[in-house]
């Protein structure tokens, strides 16, 4: 994960090594501004930096079918 110095955007990479059926795949992020809102360029969802860092992104919802070896690159932009 890379976060811009001003925390206005971030680039998140996710690779699923082994898929476990019916299990959410949350990834907690770091380095975001907890008071800012960020839009996910894949799903269009807007979440706070606080939520992304404490709960995380759920890659089992809105990103298509998850299989072994699935990878994503997600751009988060401040709104």
User: How much is the radius of gyration in Å?
Assistant: 12 Å
Order of helices and strands: EEEEEHEE
The tally of strands reads: 7
The major sheet is characterized as:
5 strands, antiparallel
Short key terms for the protein model shown above:
mainly beta, two-stranded antiparallel ribbon, 7 strands
Give a written overview of the molecule.
The strands form 2 sheets. Strands 1-2-7-4-5 form a 5-stranded antiparallel sheet. It has 79 residues and is mainly beta. The mean pLDDT is 87. A hairpin with a 5-residue loop joins strand 1 (2-3) and strand 2 (9-15). The two termini are 19 Å apart. Helices cover 8% and strands 35% of the residues.
Task: Write the topology of this structure.
Blueprint: E1 2-3, E2 9-15, E3 26-27, E4 37-40, E5 46-48, H1 49-54, E6 57-58, E7 71-78
Task: Put the structure in a nutshell.
The chain has 1 helix and 7 strands. It is mainly beta.
């Amino acid at each position: 994960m890379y976060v811009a110095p001003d925390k206005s955007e971030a680039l998140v990479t996710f690779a699923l090594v082994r898929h476990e059926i019916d299990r959410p795949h949350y990834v907690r992020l770091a380095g975001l501004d907890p008071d800012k809102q960020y839009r996910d360029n894949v799903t269009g969802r807007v979440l706070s930096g606080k939520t992304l860092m404490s709960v995380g992104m759920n890659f089992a919802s809105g990103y298509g079918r998850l299989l072994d070896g699935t990878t994503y690159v997600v751009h988060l932009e401040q709104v």
